Amino acid sequence: MHPPFPVSPVWRRPVSPIACRFSEGDVDLVVVGAGYQGLSTALHAARLGLSVQVIEAGEIGAGASGVNGGQVIPGLKQDPETLISLFGEEAGKRLIRFAAKTADVVYGLIGREELDVEHVRSGWIQAAHTEAALEAAGQRNRQWRAQGADVALLNQAEIALLTGAEGYRGGFLDRRAGVVNPLALVHELARIATEAGAGLVTEDPVTSLVRDGTSWRVGTKSGRFVRGRKVLLATNAYSGPLLPKLAQSLVWLHSFQIATEPLPAEFDIILASGQAVSDRRRILVYYRRTPDGRLVLGGRGPMRPPRSTEDWAHLERALHRLYPMLSGIPISHRWFGRVAMTSDHLPHLHEPQPGLLMAAGCQGRGIGLMVSLGEPIAQYVATGDPGVLPLPISPLRGIPLHPFRRIGIAAHVAWYRLLDGVER
């Protein structure tokens, strides 16, 4: 359902054509979903010599991969010491090494493949507005410095200089991070995956997924069928009735975003060095500059599709809280998309039936995480060796009382927003 007013992301689409084709007969891998995860896996699988067919329900970039804020953040929601306590010494350190390099993978791919993707790698700031948030930033800084990461703890003067924003007491700077044009990245991934030999069709939802002997028979709305030795269900926040238990294992939220008109030169003090920012509020906001000088800011929105531009009003209030001087700058773009979270805030790898694979749960790290997962998932498809995966394959478990989660989340968002307002 589309709202009765313009809703479109600010991101530019590349002009390079993408060759679409459908592979009749049997293939080694069927990928359902042409986002970062699906296309990265398709690219690496095709380059390993596997036959691959990607099937996308909508247009390239219509899901989370094309409508996110374009922040490329290494690491995971949890810090290294927590990961070791959860996974043990060996598996925890393997996951930390993987997570530490996710931004390297993205920027390395852009450079190596000469992708038509605007990008800046100046770092990411996690901004602290309270003493408790600043203490947490200090813990994150300590743990990643122990891993040899290029990070720093910012004081109040330093964060004010880098962001130009009001109200922060300090923060955590991760110089490994940066920003990209997210829509351009997913389009360019589609282009190089098809050039590597992967088949791709769009705007044709998968409607059936049936185990057929040692393979999977995949059918689409248009009547196409393909058999795959393996299937990667790369649908994440857009998982639905095809595998209900996957959808029931995830909590999805709407992320709303706004973009200003290009800012006049007098506002060049805002993110002057090009960093991206997320704050440490309970209902966080995140923001960055675009190549043409706009400020893009995003955060949680209603659990329903927007009904009017008022559904973005909380973001405009956050923008003016941080940058009161922008109160007269018009908003040029408003858009939204769906993101998936897991109950433990960790990414999950599942194989509920032989040959049926999925990776889900991004927690704000989707670009680096899902692009980076493509190569090990492709290696697993090729070899069957779970040792190539950075995460253990875990059982697929639905969240109890999942149908009521949206009601509970909406109540939590309202309460947390109230608490954040008190702390401002």
Automatic annotation (TrEMBL):
Sequence ranges assigned to domain FAD dependent oxidoreductase in this UniProt record: 28-379
Pfam families listed in its UniProt record: DAO
Matches recorded under Gene3D superfamilies: D-Amino Acid Oxidase, subunit A, domain 2, FAD/NAD(P)-binding domain
Chain ranges passing through the membrane: none
Keywords: Oxidoreductase
Keyword Ribonucleoprotein part of the UniProt annotation: no
PANTHER family: FAD DEPENDENT OXIDOREDUCTASE DOMAIN-CONTAINING PROTEIN (PTHR13847:SF281), SARCOSINE DEHYDROGENASE-RELATED (PTHR13847)
Protein name: FAD-binding oxidoreductase
Organism: Rhizobium rhizophilum
